[in-house]
Amino acid sequence: MSDTITRVGRVEIAQREQAPAPTRQEVVFDIRNLTVRYGRTTAIRDVSFEIYRNLVTAVIGPSGCGKSTFIRSLNRMNDLVPTAKVEGEVVYLGKDLYDRDVDPVEVRRWIGMVFQKPNPFPKSIYDNVAWGPRVLGMRSGLDERVQRALEQAALWDEVKGRLKRNALSLSGGQQQRLCIARALAVEPQALLLDEPASALDPIATSAIEDLIHQLKRDYTIVIVTHNMQQAARVADRTCFFSLSEEDAEGERSGILVEYDETQKIFTSPSDPRTEGYVTGRFG
Amino acid sequence: MSAAAPWGRASPRLRRRKAVNLMMEALATVAALIAVALLGTVIVSVLRRGLPAISLDFFTKAPAGFGAPGGGLANAFAGSLVIVAVAALIALPVGVLTALYLSEFAPKWLEETIRLALDVLNGIPSIVIGIFVFGILVVSHQQSGLAGSFALAIIMLPLIARSTQEVLRVVPETLREASYALGISRWRTVVGIILPASIGGIMTGTMLAVARAAGETAPLLFTSSLTAPFVTWDPRQPLQSVPLTIFELSESPDPLDHARAWAAALALIAFVLLASLVSRALLARSRRKLGQVG
User: Fold this and answer.
1) Which CATH class is domain A2-119+187-278?
2) What ipTM was estimated for this complex?
3) Which positions in chain B touch A108 (Cβ < 8 Å)?
4) Which residue among B178, B184, B290 sits closest to A135, beta carbon to beta carbon?
5) How far does Cα B67 stand from its chain's mean position?
6) Where are the domains of chain A?
7) Which residues contact B249 (CB under 8 A, 6 or more apart)?
8) pTM of the predicted protein model
């Protein structure tokens, strides 16, 4: 056992330009005491932190610690689960997403999401990207819009000759980039990626990661990943979720352990639990 | 001590287990063969007796009158076509919308209640539905193709609704999520993504319902006509239908009429078989389409 652990060692940090982060970063998501329950089980408890504009923020942690629940509460996808109950606030650019006068459909229109498994519609490549803008009334210049989104998702060159083909004929990695293009086509302000590369091979994963680097110029990105190397490669800031100690009823729930610059999380974390996870001692 | 392999020593108990196994397998196989043989026998006997009376005239000419040779049953074919088509036009939208409500919008307890109601409706004897429609539509007005269509629509509704619900259930949740994540409302998601993805399955259910309705006799007994000798396409008139014609001709003393009854039965069976095969093909196609998404 100890053998495998020592060999894992520390996670390599990718070389990145050491542009010092601006001292006053604009807060996009201000998460305050967020608790999400499914029926009687608490998925995440009392999570508070801020996500900044034009940064990639990674959410890492062991299975079952509520990473997906957390990211789905940032665009109210959890509303679709009948038993889900959300407490606390997710203040997005000054407005709580969970205010009574906020329509979740409107929230999702501005905060896009890409899922773990590529889920293109069973339509043509073109229609996959064009359908969202068309339904949302963004009909003018639709062809240019589709092309722009596919270019942003680094897919245009591969599909420009076969836009009428069914999207399901694409490879897994291409399908996932198509899903990103689909999300970008409606011009969201923020992009949530829920383990976007977990179903992909290393080459496709690398393409998605390059893409994330490109996209952060225009978007605020939150990415859930269970792959620490990936977090180290793509994220400016990283938050580490874990499971709490058992409470009085023997229940454990996801909590935010530590949130800092990615480099700090992986090289000198301040919490021993974070250190244990990033060095491979558990999780 | 060396261990011997535990097999190869046929004990009496093992032999008995093998014998029972063989016997049960044989029984089940025979039962399955009987089911197939029954269908085969019906088809063969109807073919044998019905085929001689089949001709172009049989489908295109009105009846020749009692005792006379020639003529056809065009009145019944046209009537059945109109009655079933109108019934499908009524039942299809109502059934599909019901299924959409159940699968996309209804709270769980209501979904279960309505589903139970549909299953009960499906189990109601068709003669009861015939009497019901007779009571509300025919007594106050008159017999008509429309009244027959209405009765058949009641029979088709639960079939279409339940089969549609089943195909909506296999539309992957990830497709709904993908649409919601674009900021698209439930209803637009249903119309733009879910219905197109399940259209093959919906058509399957509709074809099966049409096949079932085309052969229904009892609901038309009181609602449409037994004796409309002229070919008409107007659903407001009392219309002759194929199943009732078979019944009527088989009661006739004229042997020519018996041959016509067999021929009509053959036409009906051919239609039902065809509808089943087409619906199978549609279902396989839509499964393949969705399977790729899965």
Assistant:
1) alpha beta
2) 0.85
3) 180-183
4) B184
5) 35
6) 2-119+187-278
7) B257, B258, B260, B261, B264
8) 0.78
